[in-house]
Design brief:
Structural class: alpha/beta
Number of domains: 3
Oligomer: single chain
CATH topology of the largest domain: Spore Coat Polysaccharide Biosynthesis Protein SpsA, Chain A
CATH class of the largest domain: Alpha Beta
Shape: elongated
Distance between the termini: 106 Å
CATH architecture of the largest domain: Alpha-Beta Complex
Bound molecules: uridine-diphosphate-N-acetylglucosamine, calcium ion
């Protein structure tokens, strides 16, 4: 078996994106676009993978954390041919096939790359590249064929002449080269074109003229091999990737009521028999367990949701861990750092931040729980507020197991409410409450009998 190495081109600025952010850093389903080609290439077990950096190289390098990757630098962006020439240094001494991919072709699959390698080796080609038929080929290099239908070159959009514009077979920018040919031919590229760039695509004509075996593997799905050059194409790629993610989840046993309004980032995991209602969004490295329900419009980011839990409509959860069989929302907000245990119920208009809420506790209406540890089986009455900030520092509130916090209570932290203690409604608690005690702080009720009649008679 011949050896395989890979070059991923990520040196361009991506001018057509009109952005301060290098193109390959633009997120696609939550992941920088440049990471996708690398993921697809991994299962081919290449001997070496070189990432070619250029424009804003250090920033781009940040998304490639894998220590096995090799990096090369292109000091000036003089075209894709120049980029590959700059990437050859780490491939010194390598003999075999070199797969060249662009960082802006994110939808390419392992299956297609494997087919390309197989085809190239079976045909004993010098150069094989992927082409596809596009209804709107604008912006892509067009594949030139001679009278016998053999590939003899690729002409770039900007250099197209006359009839060539009508060619619908385009170059997808995915190439497999025999390393000897690549090594000796890169130096022959010239900048004699409209863009004054070294075009990698000129190697196709060079190989053909030399009598080398060149062919295109024509892919039937133009979407998979599309390049992202503009934000319009970014949104098209996003839609296609999103469809792929949702389909994968549905086939693995997740019900998605309305895929067209559901949004799930690449890498989110969802367990079997979970039902996702319209408008739900799951972001980052979120993991949702089995048999959960995620209702309309819920937004969950970087969080874990245990089995059998229901996240009700319009709830927002960030960087938190929710246990099993809990119910959160509707309209609840869990800010970062929450740990919510099994069977907890958090209801409407409850905000929780950096708090641990233990098993079976309920906070059903209109409360703020911040920097708190709330024990098991606690009842938090409507309108309870932890006053965790004194204007300078944050303080913790501790409520022990079985306590009952009456409605409209302010717990002025730092403060502890003991086990099974009761707090009367409307209290402002500034000192610790011992276990089993009742604490209340409110003026006693004054009732004046017959007051209304007396007032009326005065008028
Ligand atoms: C390229 C092909 C075109 C093909 C299309 C497919 C050339 C000359 N043209 O055009 O035939 O149809 O891809 O998507 O190759 N890059 C560098 N350094 C540079 C220039 C580019 O690293 O100096 C990188 C870019 O970051 C990008 C890739 O190479 O990842 C492709 O460059 P891009 O400018 O997008 O090429 P296209 O115009 O799309
Ligand atoms: Ca491109």
């Amino acid at each position: 078996m011949k050896a395989l190495s890979v070059i991923v081109l990520a040196g361009g600025k991506g001018k057509r994106m009109r952005s301060g952010l290098p193109k390959v850093l633009h997120p696609l389903c939550g992941v920088p676009m440049g990471r996708y080609p690398l993921e697809s290439v991994r299962p081919l077990r290449p001997e070496r993978i070189v990432v070619l950096l250029g424009h804003d190289g250090e920033r781009v390098k940040g998304i490639f954390k894998d220590s096995s990757l090799l990096f090369a630098h292109q000091p000036e962006q003089l075209g894709t041919g120049h980029a590959v020439a700059c990437a050859m240094e780490p491939l010194k001494g390598f003999r075999g096939d070199v797969l060249v991919l662009s960082g802006d072709v994110p939808l390419i699959t392992t299956t297609t790359l494997k087919a390309l390698v197989r085809f190239h080796r079976r045909e004993k080609n010098t150069l094989t590249f992927v082409s596809t038929i596009m209804e709107k080929p604008h912006g892509y290099g067009r594949v030139l064929r001679d009278e016998e239908g053999r590939v003899c070159g690729v002409v770039e959009e900007k250099d197209i002449k006359g009839q060539e514009r009508a060619i619908s077979e385009v170059n997808a920018g995915i190439y497999l080269f025999c390393s000897e040919f690549l090594g000796k031919s890169l130096g022959r590229l010239r900048r004699t074109n409209r863009q004054k760039e070294y075009y990698l695509t000129d190697l196709i004509q060079i190989a053909f003229e030399e009598g080398g075996k060149v062919s295109a593997l024509t892919h039937s799905d133009p979407v998979e091999v599309m390049g992202v050059n503009t934000r319009v194409e970014l949104s098209e790629a996003e839609r296609a990737m999103q469809e792929r993610i949702l389909e994968g989840l549905m086939l693995s046993g997740v019900t998605i009521k309305d895929p067209s309004s559901t949004y799930i980032d690449h890498g989110v995991k969802v367990g079997r028999d979970t039902v996702i209602q319209p408008g739900a969004c799951l972001y980052g490295d979120t993991v949702v367990g089995r048999g959960c329900t995620i209702e309309e419009g819920a937004r969950i980011e970087g969080s874990r949701i245990g089995d059998g839990t229901t996240i009700r409509s319009y709830t927002v959860i960030e960087a938190s861990r929710i246990g099993r069989e809990a119910t959160i929302g509707p309209f609840a907000r869990l800010r970062p750092g929450c740990r919510v245990d099994r069977g907890v119920r958090i209801g409407n208009f409850v905000e929780v931040k950096n708090s641990h809420i233990k098993e079976g506790t309920k906070a059903n209406h209109h409360s703020y729980i911040g920097d708190a540890t709330i024990g098991k089986g606690v009842n938090i009455g409507a309108g309870t507020i932890t006053c965790n900030y004194d204007g300078r520092r944050k303080h913790r509130t501790i409520v022990k197991d079985g306590a009952f916090i009456g409605s409209d209570t302010q717990l002025v932290a730092p403060v502890t409410v003991g086990r099974n203690a009761y707090i009367g409604a409307g209290s402002t608690i500034t000192r610790d409450v011992p276990a089993g005690a009742l604490a209340l702080s409110r003026p006693e009720q004054k009732t004046i009998n017959g007051w209304v009649r007396k007032r009326n008679s005065r008028e």
